[in-house]
Amino acid sequence: MILVTGGAGYIGSHAVLALLQAGHEVLVLDNLCNSSRASLDRVALIAGRKARFIKGDIRNRALLDELFQRWPITAVMHFAGLKAVGESVRDPLRYYETNVAGSITLCQSMADAGIFRLVFSSSATVYGESVSMPIREDCPTGIPTNPYGQSKLMAENVLKALAHSDPRWSIALLRYFNPIGAHESGLIGEDPNGVPNNLLPYMLQVAVGRQSQLSIYGNDYPTRDGTGIRDYIHVVDLVEGHLCALERLNQSTGVSVWNLGTGQGYSVLEMVRSFEQIIGRSLPVRSVARRPGDIAQCWADPSKALSELQWSAKRGLHAMLADSWRWQKMNPQGYQAEIAVAPAEV
Ligand code: NAD
Ligand code: WQD
């Protein structure tokens, strides 16, 4: 059985689905602070079977001990965490407590229970402002400009030290680039609380009329069209990378770092134009000043994951945007409402 922390969230719910479809038993631990149980009901609908769900907090050591004692857990996929960059600047203690202290509590409980296999959700944000592109795993980590990024780097360092201290640990640090997209059924996807911070969720909400206009942050970057370039990766490709990493943890110990990206960067304007083609109309946009803390460009060298995990991203930009749009159209208010359009009609 695999314990999936944060399994009701955006990436976690797609991972739970992939694990169920691969035949694993799954236990989800999530405090639902940024998600809803509806995501797991939808996962069950697609998979035809359920993950077990416990509403609880990764910072609750007694609960973790009880779960590891009660269920035959052999490995943990650890998605639970807080991820809003701006919020982390306003409330750094909450971010360090959840993302760093929460990860430490989880590892302490795992070690006491004799479970040493862990897949951790890290982020390309740990590279900071890297000078050369594409970014390889051996590029030095930078100085993330916000507490969220710092918390991911700190958690990585804790996990590296842990793996070096005790050879029983087998840990995968997966550095995600920019996950977007949704399962092709349109039943699960990203459902941000409040006003979205990220580009694609914001574009989707403009397209369904929940936001009036997209602000393009900066048109004077040293890039091909002046707007920021990122390596967007389909969430289903991303979670397939997790299953490959999990397999690999069975065969080796120590700590390994893998980039999960496509190796291809797109600018904000390219994203907007491609999305407009999919929805068949233009999107209201305006150019505004750069967003503080943003970097000009960032894309992965994903060749290490290809050679060591036999994993690469298969879905291109069109699939990422079309799948995101299907999710948004079927669920204009996210998980709050019943599905607006039956899957067959989309
Ligand atoms: P998400 O907010 O949708 O999912 C995180 C889940 O963790 C939520 O369901 C939330 O309720 C749960 N959670 C938060 N604190 C918890 C706690 N203390 N105890 C139990 N559950 C808790 O976010 P996501 O996009 O699915 O991200 C998953 C992981 O991937 C996070 O660790 C995030 O930092 C990391 N990551 C995300 C991105 C991205 O762009 N989405 C990029 C890089 C890394
Ligand atoms: C992408 C591009 C913006 C919104 C963030 C976190 C990172 C990681 C992924 C978790 C940039 C531009 C955005 C908008 C815009 N999360 N943009 N208008 O900043 O690459 O990464 O999410 O680990 O840590 O920092 O993603 O989607 O916010 O921005 O023009 O309304 O879109 O300037 O060039 P980012 P993003």
From TrEMBL:
Catalytic activity, reaction form: UDP-alpha-D-glucose = UDP-alpha-D-galactose
Record SUPFAM superfamilies: NAD(P)-binding Rossmann-fold domains
NAD-dependent epimerase/dehydratase domain location: 2-261
Pathway involvement of the protein, from the record: Carbohydrate metabolism; galactose metabolism
Xref: Pfam families: Epimerase
CDD domains from the UniProt entry: UDP_G4E_1_SDR_e (cd05247)
Cofactor(s) essential for the protein: NAD(+)
Domain of life assignment: Bacteria
InterPro entries, A to Z: Epimerase_deHydtase, NAD(P)-bd_dom_sf, UDP_G4E
EC number: 5.1.3.2
Keywords for this protein: Carbohydrate metabolism, Galactose metabolism, Isomerase, NAD
Residue stretches spanning the membrane: none
UniProt-recorded Gene Ontology molecular function terms: UDP-glucose 4-epimerase activity
Assembly behavior: Homodimer.
Protein name (database record): UDP-glucose 4-epimerase
